[in-house]
Amino acid sequence: MGDVSGRCVKIPAGPVILEGDLTMPENAGGVILFAHGSGSSRHSPRNRFVAKTLNERRFATLLMDLLTQEEERIDAQTAHLRFDIPLLAGRLVAASEWLAHNPDTRTLALGYFGASTGAAAALIAAAERPGSTRAVVSRGGRPDLAGAALGRVRAPVLLIVGGADTTVIQMNRSALAELNGESKLQIIRHATHLFEEPGALEEAARLAGEWFEEHIIE
After folding, report:
1. What is the tens place of the pLDDT at every residue in 126-185?
2. With 0-12 CB in 10 A as exposed, 13-18 as middle and 19+ as buried, what is 79?
3. Average pLDDT over the chain, rounded to whole?
4. Any bridge partners for residue 201, and if so which?
5. Strand partners, 115
6. Which residue range forms the structural domain that includes residue 101?
């Protein structure tokens, strides 16, 4: 891999400004926007590991906080905002528009990587932007929370779930049945919800990278 540059960016989303980390490998073949899950942030070590793997595959990545610091303080007490999927999806759409106008990324094809509740937000954002979303990957996600938007997603969708995460497997199977475009459920044997078992997160990152390479890089 060639040179990689990273910087902190500020993304306007309605009345708030959100912070993100944009990483640009040399000659990037696409950009992946991350949507973190319940109670997490752009500093999630699992998402940062996946992002680094994608950077090595020539993808730019944007990890962003979907909530402001004040909202995160409120959510730590109420756990309400992390399940406000329309709010999170709207902020992903705003970040997508920012990427479409940012000089470093405006020519790059877009994919979404969502974890936990962030997967539902990513799928809604993909449904809202069918002409510019090339692929979506969910890791341990709750795609079922995207509701009726699932039927409007046109981008290819990969759902990655741990084999020991039985409740979430059923939720993903239900969501898979609602998707009309190309879609696949990939179960990583013995992995639990956070993919903490040896090799589990590496396998999820590999599958995500292959999916994005197949559907984004021309």
Report:
1. 999 999 999 999 999 999 999 999 999 999 999 999 999 999 999 999 999 999 999 999
2. exposed
3. 93
4. none
5. 139
6. 4-215
Our CA dihedral for 44, 208, 195, 75, rounded to 10 degrees, sits at: 40
Distance CA 171, CA 91 (A): 24
Dist CA 184 CA 155 (whole Å): 12
Residue 104 sits in a domain of what CATH number? 3.40.50.1820
Nearest-angstrom CA–CA distance, 168 and 151? 19
- Lookup: tokens for 115: 């974890």
Positive or negative, the Cα torsion across 108, 110, 114, 117? positive
CA 119, distance to chain mean position in Å, is 6
Cα of 107 vs its chain's centroid, Å: 19
Residue 81 to residue 85: CA distance in whole angstroms: 8
Domain count of the chain? 1
Q: Which of 15, 8, 14 is nearest to 64 (CA)?
A: 8
pLDDT tens digits, residue range 72-96?
A: 888 778 777 777 899 999 999 999 9
